[in-house]
Design goal:
This protein has about 400 residues and is of the alpha/beta class. It is built from 17 helices and twelve strands. Helix 1 links the parallel strand 1 and strand 2.
C-alpha cells in the first residue's frame, strides 16, 4: 500500500508520547513493506533538529517538513473566543502547507491518507477535494476530554471558565471532523466510546499505541527506591501532574524515607524550578530514554487530566520497571491493579504504596514480569501495525 501520513508535528526526537507513537507506526509500516510518505508541520517552539530528523525519518518514508508558528497570540486567542471557534485548532492551519498537500495528492497516487490527530483536521476538506481514496483519522487521544479535565481540576474560577469554553469548542470540532473521514482509529476503547457518542454511525477500530521491543529490552529492577517521571513539560497535563506530585505527594514520602529519590526528566523541564527540593534530581536532556529508564526503578504517572494511552507506562513495563499510576494515567491499558501495575489516586495512597514496597509487603518482581508479558502479548508495534493495515485494506476493498 501507498500511505500518506499527515502530522501536526515532526516525530523526532523521540522525547514525548505523541512523537513516539507516530514514529513507531511510520517505521513499522515501512518495515512491513509498504510505501510511506510523511508530511508534517513543525512548530517553531519545538526547535526540531531538522537535519537529524531528516536523516532518521527518511530511512522509512519520503519526508516533507513545513515550518509553522504555533505560539499563542493573545489577540488571536481573543478573536477566536469571540467567534466561539477553537483557537487551539486554528494555530495549526497554514495555507501554504494546505496548498503543498493538495499539490502532493494531485501529483502522486495513494491508497490511504492517515491523519494523525485532531490538529490536522483543518486539512480534511482540501484533501477530500483531490483524493478519492481512504481517509483515516488516527486519534491519539480525545483532545476535548483533556481540556475538560483540566477545567475540572482548575481552582481559579476565571481560568476554569475559559478552559471549559476551550473544551466545548474542541468537542464540537472533533464531532465535526470524525464525520468527514472514512474511519477513526482511536488508541483505547474508552476513547472509541467517546467518539461513538459524538458520531454513532462512524467506523471505528481501536489500535493501541505500540512498543518497539527491540529497543525496550527487559531489564528488571531489583529495588523500588529510585522513582522517576519522564514526560514533556510542554504538555499542560504533565505540568499539572508534576506540580501535584511535587507539592502534595513527594513531601509525604521524602520526609519519612531518606532512601527514596525522584528523578524528573522531559522536554522543556526547568531545572531551576526543582533544584532546591530535597531528594529530587532533574535530568534536563535525555539522549537515550531507554538508558534513563533502565537506571531507575519505579515509573510514577500522577496524571489528573489526559486521554489516550500513556506510552511511558508501556515503555516502563517493557523495560521491567514497576509502574505506580493514577487511574487516569493508566486508562486505555488492559491492566489489573496489583498484577501489572499499582494504582494510587491520592497522596496518602502513593505514600502507603512506597511504605509497603519499602517493607517488602508487595511482591513487585511478579508484577514486573506480568507487565512485560502484557506488553509482549498486546502492545508490540509491529503486530499492531499489521492489524491496522489489514483494517485499512478491508476498508479500501469495500470502498472500491
Amino acid at each position: 500500500m501507498k500511505i500518506l501520513q499527515v502530522s501536526n508535528r515532526v516525530p523526532w526526537p523521540l522525547n514525548e508520547g505523541g512523537t513516539i507513537g507516530i514514529y513507531n507506526y511510520t517505521k513499522s509500516f515501512s518495515e512491513l513493506g509498504h510505501d510511506v510518505t510523511l508530511y508534517c508541520l513543525d512548530g517553531h517552539k519545538h526547535n526540531t533538529p531538522i537535519q537529524e530528523a531528516t536523516a532518521e525519518l527518511t530511512k522509512y518514508a519520503k519526508l516533507y517538513i513545513h515550518p509553522i508558528d504555533t505560539d499563542v497570540n493573545f489577540d488571536d486567542a481573543l478573536k477566536y473566543l469571540l467567534r466561539n471557534k477553537s483557537y487551539n485548532v486554528s494555530r495549526f492551519y497554514n495555507s501554504t502547507f494546505e496548498q503543498e498537500l493538495i499539490e502532493l495528492l494531485s501529483s502522486e497516487s495513494f491508497d490511504v491518507v492517515q491523519l494523525d490527530g485532531t490538529f490536522v483536521g483543518p486539512y480534511i476538506s482540501s484533501i477530500r477535494k483531490v483524493f478519492n481514496g481512504l481517509i483515516v483519522l488516527r486519534m491519539h487521544n480525545v483532545e476535548y476530554e483533556i481540556w475538560q479535565r483540566l477545567a475540572y481540576n482548575e481552582k481559579n474560577p476565571f481560568k476554569k471558565f475559559y478552559l471549559n469554553i476551550l473544551s466545548r469548542q474542541l468537542k464540537r470540532y472533533e464531532s465535526q471532523i470524525i464525520k468527514q473521514v472514512d474511519a477513526v482509529v482511536p488508541v483505547t476503547d474508552q476513547d472509541s466510546d467517546k467518539f461513538k457518542h459524538l458520531h454513532s454511525k462512524g467506523i471505528y477500530k481501536t489500535i493501541p499505541a505500540g512498543i518497539n521491543l527491540d529497543t525496550w529490552k527487559f531489564s528488571p529492577s531489583t529495588s523500588t527506591q529510585r522513582w522517576y517521571h519522564i514526560g514533556s513539560m510542554e504538555w499542560h497535563a504533565n505540568v499539572e501532574a508534576v506540580d501535584w506530585y511535587i507539592n502534595e505527594i513527594h513531601p509525604l514520602i521524602a520526609k519519612k524515607w531518606n532512601n527514596y529519590s525522584l528523578n524528573l526528566a522531559g522536554k522543556g523541564i526547568d531545572t531551576k524550578e526543582f533544584n532546591s527540593i530535597d531528594q529530587v534530581e532533574v535530568t534536563k536532556d535525555v539522549e537515550d530514554a531507554y538508558q534513563f529508564v533502565k537506571s531507575c526503578d519505579v515509573c510514577v504517572v500522577p496524571l489528573k487530566s489526559g486521554s489516550g494511552i500513556r506510552l511511558k507506562i508501556l515503555e516502563a513495563m517493557a523495560a521491567g520497571k514497576l509502574v505506580v499510576s493514577t487511574k487516569i494515567g493508566a486508562q486505555g491499558i488492559d491492566y489489573v491493579d496489583r498484577e501489572h501495575l499499582l494504582i494510587a489516586d491520592t497522596p496518602s495512597e502513593f505514600s502507603t504504596l512506597f511504605q509497603k514496597l519499602n517493607n517488602n509487603q508487595i511482591e513487585f518482581t511478579s508484577i514486573i514480569k506480568n507487565a512485560r508479558k502484557l506488553i509482549e502479548d498486546n502492545y508490540s508495534t509491529k503486530a499492531l501495525a499489521k492489524k491496522q493495515l489489514l483494517f485499512y485494506q478491508s476498508l479500501t476493498h469495500n470502498k472500491g
